[in-house]
Protein backbone atom coordinates (compact mmCIF):
# COMPACT_ATOMS: atom_id res chain seq x y z
CA UNK A 1 0.00 0.00 0.00
CA UNK A 2 2.10 2.47 -0.98
CA UNK A 3 10.93 9.55 -3.62
CA UNK A 4 12.26 10.47 -6.63
CA UNK A 5 11.66 13.39 -8.96
CA UNK A 6 11.75 11.56 -12.25
CA UNK A 7 9.64 8.92 -13.94
CA UNK A 8 10.85 5.51 -12.91
CA UNK A 9 11.29 2.59 -15.27
CA UNK A 10 7.73 1.62 -14.43
CA UNK A 11 6.44 5.12 -14.83
CA UNK A 12 5.83 5.33 -11.11
CA UNK A 13 6.67 8.96 -10.51
CA UNK A 14 7.11 9.84 -6.87
CA UNK A 15 7.76 13.09 -5.09
CA UNK A 16 9.10 14.00 -1.67
CA UNK A 17 6.57 13.72 1.13
CA UNK A 18 8.06 16.53 3.19
CA UNK A 19 7.39 20.23 2.95
CA UNK A 20 4.19 22.22 3.07
CA UNK A 21 0.87 21.10 1.70
CA UNK A 22 -2.51 22.68 1.26
CA UNK A 23 -5.61 21.26 2.93
CA UNK A 24 -7.14 20.14 -0.35
CA UNK A 25 -10.21 22.35 0.00
CA UNK A 26 -10.02 24.06 -3.38
CA UNK A 27 -12.79 24.21 -5.94
CA UNK A 28 -15.51 25.93 -3.86
CA UNK A 29 -17.43 28.25 -6.14
CA UNK A 30 -19.32 29.75 -3.23
CA UNK A 31 -22.65 28.70 -4.72
CA UNK A 32 -25.33 26.60 -3.09
CA UNK A 33 -24.62 23.85 -5.62
CA UNK A 34 -21.16 22.99 -4.37
CA UNK A 35 -20.76 19.45 -3.03
CA UNK A 36 -17.87 18.12 -0.97
CA UNK A 37 -15.98 14.87 -1.49
CA UNK A 38 -14.17 13.87 1.68
CA UNK A 39 -10.77 12.24 1.78
CA UNK A 40 -9.47 10.25 4.72
CA UNK A 41 -5.85 9.10 4.69
CA UNK A 42 -2.62 9.47 6.69
CA UNK A 43 -1.44 12.91 5.56
CA UNK A 44 1.30 13.14 8.17
CA UNK A 45 3.57 10.68 9.94
CA UNK A 46 3.82 7.02 8.96
CA UNK A 47 2.29 6.09 5.62
CA UNK A 48 1.91 9.77 4.62
CA UNK A 49 3.85 9.24 1.39
CA UNK A 50 1.03 7.09 -0.01
CA UNK A 51 -1.71 8.94 1.88
CA UNK A 52 -0.86 12.22 0.18
CA UNK A 53 -0.95 10.44 -3.18
CA UNK A 54 -4.59 9.57 -2.44
CA UNK A 55 -5.46 13.15 -1.44
CA UNK A 56 -4.05 14.67 -4.60
CA UNK A 57 -5.47 11.95 -6.84
CA UNK A 58 -8.92 13.04 -5.66
CA UNK A 59 -8.01 16.71 -6.02
CA UNK A 60 -7.09 16.27 -9.68
CA UNK A 61 -10.39 14.47 -10.36
CA UNK A 62 -12.36 17.27 -8.70
CA UNK A 63 -10.44 19.92 -10.62
CA UNK A 64 -11.12 18.06 -13.88
CA UNK A 65 -14.83 17.79 -13.03
CA UNK A 66 -15.10 21.50 -12.31
CA UNK A 67 -13.04 22.59 -15.31
CA UNK A 68 -14.87 20.37 -17.77
CA UNK A 69 -18.34 20.82 -16.25
CA UNK A 70 -18.92 17.09 -15.72
CA UNK A 71 -22.10 17.88 -13.77
CA UNK A 72 -23.71 21.05 -15.18
CA UNK A 73 -24.67 23.46 -12.44
CA UNK A 74 -22.71 21.60 -9.76
CA UNK A 75 -19.20 22.23 -8.48
CA UNK A 76 -17.13 20.01 -6.23
CA UNK A 77 -14.53 20.60 -3.56
CA UNK A 78 -12.27 18.36 -1.46
CA UNK A 79 -12.11 18.11 2.32
CA UNK A 80 -9.00 16.08 3.16
CA UNK A 81 -8.71 14.80 6.72
CA UNK A 82 -5.61 13.25 8.30
CA UNK A 83 -6.23 9.94 10.08
CA UNK A 84 -2.52 9.43 10.96
CA UNK A 85 -3.09 5.72 10.16
CA UNK A 86 -5.03 5.45 13.46
CA UNK A 87 -8.46 3.70 13.52
CA UNK A 88 -9.89 5.97 16.22
CA UNK A 89 -8.92 9.07 14.26
CA UNK A 90 -10.41 7.60 11.10
CA UNK A 91 -13.69 6.96 12.89
CA UNK A 92 -13.75 10.53 14.17
CA UNK A 93 -13.06 11.81 10.65
CA UNK A 94 -15.89 9.67 9.26
CA UNK A 95 -18.28 11.15 11.84
CA UNK A 96 -17.17 14.65 10.84
CA UNK A 97 -17.70 13.96 7.14
CA UNK A 98 -21.19 12.48 7.47
CA UNK A 99 -22.18 15.37 9.72
CA UNK A 100 -21.53 17.90 6.97
CA UNK A 101 -24.68 18.60 4.93
CA UNK A 102 -22.71 19.20 1.74
CA UNK A 103 -20.51 16.07 1.84
CA UNK A 104 -21.74 13.54 -0.70
CA UNK A 105 -19.15 10.77 -0.37
CA UNK A 106 -15.63 9.91 0.74
CA UNK A 107 -12.48 8.44 -0.76
CA UNK A 108 -10.24 6.44 1.58
CA UNK A 109 -8.87 5.34 3.89
CA UNK A 110 -5.42 3.99 3.05
CA UNK A 111 -5.28 1.33 5.77
CA UNK A 112 -7.63 -1.64 6.10
CA UNK A 113 -7.52 -1.45 9.89
CA UNK A 114 -8.71 2.16 9.75
CA UNK A 115 -11.48 1.19 7.33
CA UNK A 116 -12.92 -1.26 9.86
CA UNK A 117 -13.54 1.63 12.26
CA UNK A 118 -15.23 3.79 9.60
CA UNK A 119 -17.55 1.48 7.68
CA UNK A 120 -20.46 1.50 10.14
CA UNK A 121 -20.38 5.29 10.38
CA UNK A 122 -20.77 5.71 6.63
CA UNK A 123 -23.39 2.98 6.35
CA UNK A 124 -25.49 4.53 9.12
CA UNK A 125 -25.50 7.79 7.15
CA UNK A 126 -26.07 5.98 3.83
CA UNK A 127 -23.00 7.72 2.41
CA UNK A 128 -20.67 6.11 -0.10
CA UNK A 129 -17.08 5.32 0.83
CA UNK A 130 -14.61 4.14 -1.82
CA UNK A 131 -11.10 3.09 -0.87
CA UNK A 132 -8.38 3.11 -3.53
CA UNK A 133 -6.09 0.96 -1.40
CA UNK A 134 -7.81 -1.29 1.17
CA UNK A 135 -7.11 -4.92 0.30
CA UNK A 136 -8.31 -7.02 3.26
CA UNK A 137 -11.06 -9.36 1.95
CA UNK A 138 -13.17 -9.10 5.13
CA UNK A 139 -14.06 -5.48 4.38
CA UNK A 140 -16.31 -6.45 1.49
CA UNK A 141 -16.92 -10.18 1.91
CA UNK A 142 -17.28 -10.59 5.68
CA UNK A 143 -15.27 -12.39 8.33
CA UNK A 144 -16.04 -15.81 6.84
CA UNK A 145 -15.13 -14.78 3.28
CA UNK A 146 -13.16 -17.97 2.63
CA UNK A 147 -16.19 -20.21 3.23
CA UNK A 148 -19.28 -17.99 3.03
CA UNK A 149 -19.06 -14.55 1.45
CA UNK A 150 -21.51 -11.97 2.77
CA UNK A 151 -21.27 -8.23 2.19
CA UNK A 152 -21.33 -6.44 5.56
CA UNK A 153 -21.67 -2.80 4.41
CA UNK A 154 -23.56 -1.75 1.28
CA UNK A 155 -22.00 1.73 1.17
CA UNK A 156 -18.38 0.51 1.08
CA UNK A 157 -16.53 -0.03 -2.23
CA UNK A 158 -12.94 -0.22 -3.37
CA UNK A 159 -10.99 0.31 -6.58
CA UNK A 160 -8.11 -1.89 -5.32
CA UNK A 161 -8.24 -5.66 -5.65
CA UNK A 162 -8.00 -7.82 -2.53
CA UNK A 163 -5.27 -9.65 -0.65
CA UNK A 164 -6.96 -12.93 -1.58
CA UNK A 165 -5.57 -12.26 -5.05
CA UNK A 166 -2.47 -10.27 -4.09
CA UNK A 167 -1.14 -12.86 -1.63
CA UNK A 168 -1.64 -15.71 -4.08
CA UNK A 169 -0.12 -13.70 -6.93
CA UNK A 170 2.99 -13.03 -4.83
CA UNK A 171 3.32 -16.66 -3.72
CA UNK A 172 3.03 -17.90 -7.30
CA UNK A 173 5.72 -15.49 -8.48
CA UNK A 174 8.02 -16.38 -5.58
CA UNK A 175 7.67 -20.11 -6.18
CA UNK A 176 7.43 -20.35 -9.96
CA UNK A 177 9.09 -17.12 -11.06
CA UNK A 178 11.91 -16.75 -8.54
CA UNK A 179 12.17 -20.51 -7.91
CA UNK A 180 12.18 -19.96 -4.14
CA UNK A 181 11.31 -23.02 -2.08
CA UNK A 182 11.73 -21.99 1.56
CA UNK A 183 10.00 -18.85 2.85
CA UNK A 184 10.12 -17.14 6.22
CA UNK A 185 6.89 -15.17 6.80
CA UNK A 186 6.61 -12.11 9.05
CA UNK A 187 3.75 -9.66 9.68
CA UNK A 188 3.11 -6.49 11.71
CA UNK A 189 0.01 -7.83 13.53
CA UNK A 190 -2.21 -5.27 11.78
CA UNK A 191 -5.37 -6.11 9.83
CA UNK A 192 -3.71 -5.59 6.45
CA UNK A 193 -0.31 -7.11 7.16
CA UNK A 194 -1.44 -10.17 9.10
CA UNK A 195 -4.13 -10.98 6.55
CA UNK A 196 -1.77 -10.69 3.61
CA UNK A 197 0.93 -12.79 5.28
CA UNK A 198 -1.59 -15.51 6.13
CA UNK A 199 -2.74 -15.75 2.51
CA UNK A 200 0.83 -15.82 1.18
CA UNK A 201 1.69 -18.54 3.68
CA UNK A 202 -1.22 -20.74 2.60
CA UNK A 203 -0.67 -20.14 -1.12
CA UNK A 204 3.09 -20.78 -1.00
CA UNK A 205 2.54 -24.01 0.96
CA UNK A 206 -0.14 -25.15 -1.49
CA UNK A 207 2.31 -24.71 -4.36
CA UNK A 208 4.79 -27.01 -2.63
CA UNK A 209 6.95 -24.43 -0.88
CA UNK A 210 8.15 -24.87 2.68
CA UNK A 211 7.51 -22.30 5.42
CA UNK A 212 10.82 -22.04 7.23
CA UNK A 213 9.31 -20.06 10.08
CA UNK A 214 6.87 -17.31 11.01
CA UNK A 215 7.11 -14.30 13.30
CA UNK A 216 5.49 -10.98 14.15
CA UNK A 217 6.77 -7.46 14.77
CA UNK A 218 5.18 -4.32 16.17
CA UNK A 219 4.61 -1.18 14.16
CA UNK A 220 7.16 1.40 15.24
CA UNK A 221 9.87 -1.18 16.05
CA UNK A 222 13.40 -0.23 15.00
CA UNK A 223 15.62 -3.07 16.22
CA UNK A 224 15.04 -6.39 14.44
CA UNK A 225 18.23 -8.18 15.47
CA UNK A 226 16.47 -11.14 17.12
CA UNK A 227 14.22 -11.57 14.08
CA UNK A 228 17.23 -11.46 11.77
CA UNK A 229 18.91 -14.19 13.83
CA UNK A 230 15.85 -16.44 13.54
CA UNK A 231 15.62 -15.89 9.78
CA UNK A 232 19.32 -16.62 9.35
CA UNK A 233 19.08 -19.89 11.30
CA UNK A 234 15.99 -20.99 9.36
CA UNK A 235 17.82 -21.31 6.05
CA UNK A 236 15.04 -19.47 4.22
CA UNK A 237 15.75 -18.35 0.65
CA UNK A 238 13.13 -15.56 0.75
CA UNK A 239 11.47 -13.41 3.42
CA UNK A 240 7.83 -12.47 2.95
CA UNK A 241 6.61 -9.47 4.93
CA UNK A 242 3.02 -8.39 5.52
CA UNK A 243 2.97 -4.75 6.52
CA UNK A 244 4.11 -1.25 5.58
CA UNK A 245 7.37 0.19 4.28
CA UNK A 246 8.30 1.81 7.60
CA UNK A 247 9.34 -1.47 9.24
CA UNK A 248 10.18 -3.54 6.15
CA UNK A 249 12.82 -1.05 4.97
CA UNK A 250 14.63 -1.44 8.30
CA UNK A 251 14.23 -5.21 8.35
CA UNK A 252 15.81 -5.68 4.93
CA UNK A 253 18.72 -3.38 5.82
CA UNK A 254 19.45 -5.20 9.07
CA UNK A 255 19.04 -8.56 7.33
CA UNK A 256 21.57 -7.70 4.61
CA UNK A 257 23.95 -6.11 7.12
CA UNK A 258 23.93 -9.45 8.95
CA UNK A 259 25.00 -11.23 5.78
CA UNK A 260 21.62 -12.75 4.96
CA UNK A 261 21.45 -12.06 1.23
CA UNK A 262 17.87 -13.09 0.52
CA UNK A 263 15.17 -10.90 -1.01
CA UNK A 264 12.39 -9.37 1.04
CA UNK A 265 9.03 -9.63 -0.72
CA UNK A 266 6.00 -7.63 0.42
CA UNK A 267 2.65 -6.25 -0.63
CA UNK A 268 1.45 -2.85 -1.78
CA UNK A 269 2.05 -1.41 1.69
CA UNK A 270 5.74 -1.62 0.82
CA UNK A 271 5.47 -0.18 -2.68
CA UNK A 272 6.82 3.33 -2.16
CA UNK A 273 10.16 4.87 -2.99
CA UNK A 274 10.53 5.75 0.70
CA UNK A 275 11.29 2.04 1.14
CA UNK A 276 14.24 2.29 -1.26
CA UNK A 277 15.49 5.56 0.21
CA UNK A 278 15.47 4.20 3.76
CA UNK A 279 16.95 0.77 3.00
CA UNK A 280 19.49 2.07 0.49
CA UNK A 281 21.51 -0.53 -1.37
CA UNK A 282 20.06 -3.26 0.85
CA UNK A 283 16.79 -2.92 -1.06
CA UNK A 284 18.32 -4.11 -4.35
CA UNK A 285 16.46 -7.20 -5.53
CA UNK A 286 13.61 -6.82 -3.07
CA UNK A 287 10.07 -7.13 -4.39
CA UNK A 288 6.55 -5.87 -3.82
CA UNK A 289 3.16 -6.48 -5.38
CA UNK A 290 0.77 -3.63 -6.04
CA UNK A 291 -2.71 -3.26 -7.47
CA UNK A 292 -3.22 -2.64 -11.16
CA UNK A 293 -0.61 -2.01 -13.82
CA UNK A 294 2.14 0.65 -13.96
CA UNK A 295 0.46 4.00 -14.51
CA UNK A 296 2.50 5.10 -17.50
CA UNK A 297 1.55 1.97 -19.44
CA UNK A 298 -2.04 3.22 -19.46
CA UNK A 299 -2.61 5.94 -22.08
CA UNK A 300 -5.56 7.36 -20.13
CA UNK A 301 -3.31 8.05 -17.12
CA UNK A 302 -0.84 10.17 -19.09
CA UNK A 303 -2.57 13.49 -18.40
CA UNK A 304 -3.01 12.58 -14.73
CA UNK A 305 0.73 11.98 -14.37
CA UNK A 306 1.56 15.25 -16.13
CA UNK A 307 -0.84 17.17 -13.91
CA UNK A 308 0.51 15.64 -10.71
CA UNK A 309 4.02 16.63 -11.78
CA UNK A 310 3.14 20.13 -12.90
CA UNK A 311 1.26 20.90 -9.67
CA UNK A 312 4.26 19.82 -7.60
CA UNK A 313 2.02 17.75 -5.36
CA UNK A 314 3.69 16.02 -2.44
CA UNK A 315 3.56 12.31 -1.73
CA UNK A 316 3.64 9.31 -4.04
CA UNK A 317 0.86 8.77 -6.55
CA UNK A 318 2.41 5.56 -7.90
CA UNK A 319 0.53 3.08 -5.74
CA UNK A 320 -2.94 4.59 -5.33
CA UNK A 321 -3.17 8.09 -6.81
CA UNK A 322 -4.80 6.98 -10.05
CA UNK A 323 -7.15 4.65 -8.15
CA UNK A 324 -8.16 7.58 -5.93
CA UNK A 325 -8.85 9.61 -9.09
CA UNK A 326 -11.14 6.86 -10.39
CA UNK A 327 -12.85 6.52 -7.00
CA UNK A 328 -13.66 10.24 -6.96
CA UNK A 329 -14.78 10.05 -10.57
CA UNK A 330 -17.21 7.23 -9.69
CA UNK A 331 -18.77 9.46 -7.02
CA UNK A 332 -19.02 12.42 -9.39
CA UNK A 333 -20.60 10.30 -12.14
CA UNK A 334 -23.13 8.98 -9.62
CA UNK A 335 -24.04 12.57 -8.73
CA UNK A 336 -24.54 13.31 -12.42
CA UNK A 337 -26.85 10.31 -12.79
CA UNK A 338 -28.92 11.56 -9.85
CA UNK A 339 -29.08 15.08 -11.28
CA UNK A 340 -30.09 13.78 -14.71
CA UNK A 341 -32.83 11.68 -13.14
CA UNK A 342 -34.09 14.78 -11.33
CA UNK A 343 -34.68 16.85 -14.43
CA UNK A 344 -31.19 18.33 -14.47
CA UNK A 345 -31.47 19.75 -10.97
CA UNK A 346 -29.51 18.89 -7.85
CA UNK A 347 -31.85 17.14 -5.37
CA UNK A 348 -32.49 19.48 -2.46
CA UNK A 349 -32.24 16.84 0.26
CA UNK A 350 -28.60 15.78 0.19
CA UNK A 351 -28.37 13.84 3.46
CA UNK A 352 -31.58 11.85 3.15
CA UNK A 353 -31.99 11.64 -0.60
CA UNK A 354 -28.96 12.32 -2.76
CA UNK A 355 -26.52 10.27 -0.69
CA UNK A 356 -28.60 7.12 -1.19
CA UNK A 357 -28.84 7.79 -4.92
CA UNK A 358 -25.05 8.18 -5.10
CA UNK A 359 -24.54 4.81 -3.37
CA UNK A 360 -26.85 3.25 -5.96
CA UNK A 361 -25.07 5.06 -8.78
CA UNK A 362 -21.64 3.85 -7.66
CA UNK A 363 -22.92 0.27 -7.47
CA UNK A 364 -24.01 0.61 -11.11
CA UNK A 365 -20.73 2.26 -12.20
CA UNK A 366 -19.41 1.11 -15.55
CA UNK A 367 -16.96 3.46 -17.22
CA UNK A 368 -13.41 3.65 -18.53
CA UNK A 369 -11.25 5.22 -15.84
CA UNK A 370 -7.59 6.13 -16.02
CA UNK A 371 -6.76 2.75 -14.43
CA UNK A 372 -9.00 0.76 -16.78
CA UNK A 373 -12.65 -0.29 -16.52
CA UNK A 374 -14.28 0.90 -13.31
CA UNK A 375 -17.12 -1.31 -12.08
CA UNK A 376 -18.01 -3.14 -8.90
CA UNK A 377 -19.37 -6.61 -8.14
CA UNK A 378 -22.11 -7.53 -5.67
CA UNK A 379 -19.66 -7.18 -2.76
CA UNK A 380 -18.42 -3.72 -3.72
CA UNK A 381 -15.11 -5.10 -4.99
CA UNK A 382 -13.52 -3.80 -8.15
CA UNK A 383 -13.84 -6.04 -11.17
CA UNK A 384 -10.39 -4.91 -12.32
CA UNK A 385 -8.21 -7.77 -11.03
CA UNK A 386 -4.85 -6.72 -12.50
CA UNK A 387 -1.76 -6.93 -10.26
CA UNK A 388 1.92 -6.18 -10.77
CA UNK A 389 5.13 -7.46 -9.17
CA UNK A 390 7.81 -4.79 -8.86
CA UNK A 391 11.49 -5.37 -8.08
CA UNK A 392 14.15 -2.89 -6.97
CA UNK A 393 16.69 -2.50 -9.75
CA UNK A 394 19.41 0.16 -9.62
CA UNK A 395 17.58 2.06 -6.91
CA UNK A 396 14.19 2.15 -8.62
CA UNK A 397 11.05 0.02 -8.67
CA UNK A 398 10.80 -1.85 -11.96
CA UNK A 399 7.73 -3.80 -13.08
CA UNK A 400 8.68 -7.43 -13.70
CA UNK A 401 5.32 -9.21 -13.93
CA UNK A 402 1.76 -8.03 -14.56
CA UNK A 403 -1.24 -10.33 -14.63
CA UNK A 404 -4.17 -11.72 -12.68
CA UNK A 405 -4.52 -14.47 -10.09
CA UNK A 406 -7.34 -16.95 -10.40
CA UNK A 407 -6.62 -19.13 -7.43
UniProtKB/TrEMBL annotation:
Organism (species): Streptomyces tropicalis
Organism lineage string: Bacteria, Bacillati, Actinomycetota, Actinomycetes, Kitasatosporales
Family indicated by similarity: Belongs to the leucine-binding protein family.
Keywords: Signal
Keyword Kinase: no
A family per Pfam: Peripla_BP_6
UniProt domain Leucine-binding protein: residue ranges: 34-395
Xref: InterPro entries: Leu-bd, Peripla_BP_I
Keyword Signal attached: yes
UniProt protein name: Branched-chain amino acid ABC transporter substrate-binding protein
Amino acid sequence: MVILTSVLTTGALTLTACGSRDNGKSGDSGSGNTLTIGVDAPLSGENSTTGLGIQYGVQIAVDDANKNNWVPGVKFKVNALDDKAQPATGQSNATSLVGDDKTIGAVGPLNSGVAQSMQQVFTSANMVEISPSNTNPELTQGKNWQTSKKRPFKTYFRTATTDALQGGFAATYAYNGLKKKKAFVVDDKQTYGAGLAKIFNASFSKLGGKIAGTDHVNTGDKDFSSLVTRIKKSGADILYYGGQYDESSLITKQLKDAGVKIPLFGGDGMFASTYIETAGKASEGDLATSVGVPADTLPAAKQFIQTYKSKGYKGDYAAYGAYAYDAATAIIKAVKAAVDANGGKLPSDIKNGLRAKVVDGVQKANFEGITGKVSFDQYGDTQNKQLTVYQVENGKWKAVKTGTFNG
